[in-house]
TrEMBL record:
SUPFAM superfamilies found in the cross-reference section: L,D-transpeptidase catalytic domain-like, PGBD-like
Residues annotated as domain L,D-TPase catalytic: 169-280
Cleaved signal peptide residues: 1-21
Entry superkingdom: Bacteria
InterPro entries to which the protein is assigned, alphabetical: LD-transpeptidase, LD_TPept_cat_dom, PGBD-like_sf, PGBDSf, Transpep_catalytic_dom
Active-site residue list: H240, C256
Residue spans of biased composition, Polar residues class: 50-60
Family matches, as CDD domains: YkuD_like
Protein name per its UniProtKB record: L,D-transpeptidase family protein
Species for this entry: Micromonospora sonneratiae
Keywords for the protein's UniProt record, in alphabetical order: Cell shape, Cell wall biogenesis/degradation, Peptidoglycan synthesis, Signal, Transferase
Pfam family, one: YkuD
Region span, Disordered: 29-95
PANTHER family membership: EXPORTED PROTEIN (PTHR30582:SF33), L,D-TRANSPEPTIDASE (PTHR30582)
Amino acid sequence: MIHPRMVARLVALAVVTLVGAGACTFDPEQERAGADKPTRVNATERESGASDTSGPNQSNRRTPKPTKTTTNPRPRVTPTKPTPTPTKPSGCPVGEKHREVETYLAKLGGFGKITVDGKQSAEDCAAIKKFQTRYDIRPVQGRAGPLTADVARRLANTNTAQCKAGSGTTFCINLTLQTVWAMRDGKVVMPPTVTRTGMPGYATPTGTYKINFRNIKEWSDPYEVWMPYWQHFTQGIGFHQTTTYIHNGPIGSHGCINMLPVDAQKLWSLGKVGTRVYVFGRRPGT
């Protein structure tokens, strides 16, 4: 027989056990409804914040639409036409004898590029100026006028083979074309250049002579003028540097062979006493 006190203790222990168990057991209704069900957060979510609940203002925030990205268009290149190279102006007036001078200068050579077309160009301008400078044709402006054409014609038409030059040095004078040149042993050692010989009443005599007197600066008694690079060959007549403008044709000389300074010096360097002189032709108007 169980003692009454023992029975009372057993009953009390049962009650405590039942009450404690009810506090820790899951309610099946709550489990079905998902109320207060704990959620396990994995490590990835903790690091990224994916499991975080929204803040108080995030529920009303609108997600912006992605902006349409457009690539910058390539700049439009407008094709440009090449700029034509402007024709360089000649800088020289056109003379009435232009084509004629072109022809003579092309034949002579040595004055630059020449195109025989009758048209002024920068090349023609430069060549004509060079020619005018060489033969002291004034003014030097590249214009092919009558004087330039006449000088070019005389030089271009001079036939050096007409000079009866033997062995040694010969000074040759063509009175018709008013040109002078020098030859040595049949070869031209000084090309034709311009001269001015005796005017009417003082015509230079033709024939074969020899230099018989030279003086680098001779004084003329009758005409009271210095005659640089004097080389006498007959009757008070000789070669010397001109004392006036050589292209002033009407005045001429008193029989002497007038020469440009550069040519008188060159002829002086080639000559000596005994040098042969051959004069032929006839100056127009004498």
